[in-house]
Fold this protein.
Amino acid sequence: MVAAQWRARGRRSLVMLSMIAVAVTGFTLLTGAAVTSRLDAVGTVQANFRPAYDILVRPKGAVLPLEQQRNLVQPGQLAGMRGGISLAQWRQIGDVPGVDIAAPVSMIGYLMRTVPITVDLAGLLDPGAERQVLRVQPSWVTDAGLSRIPDGAHYLYATRNRIDTPRTDLPGSAEKDLRPQEVGADGRRSHVCPGVRIIYQSDQTDPTDLTSRSSLTCTGGPGSKDGSGRPTAARVTLLWSIPFLVAAVDPESEAALAGLDGAVSTGRYFRPGEKPAARRLADVKYPYSVLPVLMTDRPQTDSTLELDIQRLDPGAVDLVRRTTEDDRPLRAALGGRAGASVERRTVRIDAPYGDLVKRMRHPAGAADESDIYTSDSLWLDKFWTVGAVHSAGEGDGRRAEGVTYNRKIWDVGDEGGLAGWVPMEFSDTAVRDSIGKHGVDTSEHNIQVGERGMPDVALDAIGTFDPAKVQLGGALSAVPMDTYFQPGVAGADEASRAALHGRKLEPNANVTGLLAQPPLMLTTMAAAEKIFDPNGYRTEPRYPELDLNRAAPVSMVRVRLSGEVGLDDLSRERVRLIAQRIAERTGLQVDITLGSSPTAVPVRYPAGKFGRPELVLAEPWVKKGVAAVLVKAADRKSVLLSGLVLAVCALAVLNASRAAVRARRTELGILACVGWTRRHLMTLLAAEMAAVGLAAGLLGTIVAIPLAWAFGLTLSWTHLLLTIPAAVLLALLAGGGPAWRAARPDPAATIRPAVSARAARMHSPRRVTGLALANLLRSPGRTLLGAASLFIGVAALTMLLAITFAFRGAVTGTLLGEAVTLQARTVDYLAVAVTIVLGVASVADVLYLNITERAPQLALFTAVGWTDRTLNRLVTTEALAMGAIGGVLGAGLGLSGASLFAGGVTAALWWCAAAALTAGIVVAALAVIVPIAMLRKLPTAQLLAQE
């Protein structure tokens, strides 16, 4: 009899089978997709779970309020730190059970190193001019091209006549007139290029003063000599000063943690515990210490020098030839002369930096002993320390605040044309102060008059290293590795990104700016003891807060634990206990960086003085504990998504089962009239439903397998085998309720249409809309059936959107979270698509049954003159009304459930509910397409005759 029913009601059986098959296929694919998405998410988290170090130890008080409020770790702190951790505390950290590596970093400060830049002008001289003046106007370009900082001009006076310059390096030269003399063709001599007078302390200026940084060079024809007896040349020399941030590390722990030994590109690595070597100059009575240093083989500074070479008007020649005792007024006057640009040149920092590294690595072969630039680079006679960024909280980020300070702290500015030994970038906006100058103290050596005194600390560049080869950890789990790397910062808003033209703002030579360069020079902890020796360096100004922290020279300690550390609760508890022991033993600030990931924090950077506008920058801080949040969110979403899909599929099948049973109510009533008991009716209906469920389960599983392979989804055989009996059980449960009601004892109640008695007594409607609403009230069961299908879909869609957006909200904001979110989007959209398909099918099925049951009524309307347009309007109005009822109720239920999941009703959830409601009404409108097509095929005469 079951087979007979399939043949007799093939269309309805096929619809029922299709609905269950679609539900089985959808559930199989979506649960597989959810599992695959979870595996991908957890796999990504596990692959990026462990950063370069597991625990970061900093001095007490080094944590900003923003770090505490948002569970963050600030990057770029090293340059502004003055120790705070003692050597004993460092060793205590290493002695904690479970600690494998305790790698310290001790910040020393900035060294200033200068390299000459020779600008050859011989090819630009006018061969027809007897005398001429060229001007080289340098500008420093930085801040991603936003800042253009002018420097002092350099002038070249060139004559075809011979220039004789008295020797300045011979005994008794101090009492002679050292001004150069130009010898004319007639033998007449005239003074040119006046010299520099003696400079007194009162003449010291800001080292970025443009006049002080300018120079005047004279060159003549054949036979011309300079003050050292060398032939003159048509060239000028500029100075490129590079601040070197210096830090001390422990060679063994740094090699184990960051692989620094494997990043050495030239020379050698530090020896374990390498200390300064003692050396002595022949004519100096005391020895000096030589600190081993490793230098980076490339600059990590945004700096470019642009040169505008100009030919000045003839009046400039007359200025140079005037006799004067001091060239300061002359250089100032030349600055006001007009000039025509003849050539532009660009010098990038790579070449000067490479020259400087070469001079330090091979001082004997770089220049002769009289080269002041090479000899200056070898001695550590002074260095500077700089404070942290002045900032205040602003919204969810911070605002850097501009400060002013006396730039004479660099103490190299004067009016003698000898300035330029500091970067011109120092003249730009500062957000750091607390600058201390630390000069070598040789007073203990009791140097007498006539004895030679030298700094007692020198540098020995034993090698270079490539920062790109240091083990920094994965990009998704990067933690502050300021010792080697400063990635730069992008704009945090559209205006800043547009100003930067898509580039990043990188550190430059302004050590008082927002971004600090990583240390370009490293030494050993054992060697740094010479710098922190109480008799080593004297600090100016003599404020205690600016002095070297000799008692606690270590700025931070990066800790890596022994053994494997996983995502499980036991591993995380082990890490927490070790961090707690470190804090208890040392009293220091301890942060667990295991499972962290970079996150952007907006920082407002004030405008510069040379073109850079105010910028809001996305500074890459570190969010702690992201990995655990990701895994929990992925697990929660996987469970909820699977449960939601199961509910949607089950309710879709229930809807189809109820519709199928209601379509057979007349047949079931007749069987009851001829003596069939409720048990026989229930057995018949259960057999039919089980057969349909079995067939649909097999069909759905067969379809799901190739689709899963095509989409790369993970399906287990156990899951597939359980799908078939689950489909049978689902069909029985879905059809049990309708079958029980259909098999009621009273046959008349089964055959009688489900019409509300109250609705039957309503006044006759006068319009199509009123008739449609009356029909909905007249058959409340049918109306509830249609509204329920949309109620299910809209509630499911609202919850699905809430799960999706709540999951993303829990993990986005970090690089690791963004990567996981991108992986989860496919399954999210697939779930939405299947939900919509099931909703359309459910509504279409209800409307199909609706028209089938009311076919005689609709035929009567056609017979009395109703047009197809009017009938279409009637059916569409009923569908939209059902859609509105189901949509509003579904959106309300979905919003309530989503609020529990998200922790409250948010604006985003209201938008999700509104979108789901709109989608439900649109689905109802689309679902009437097939039923409307049926209206045109109704056999009006046959239906009226049967009625």
Observations:
- The two ends are 28 Å apart (CA to CA).
- The chain has a mean pLDDT of 78.
- Residues 815-853 form the longest helix (39 residues).
- The longest strand covers residues 99-120.
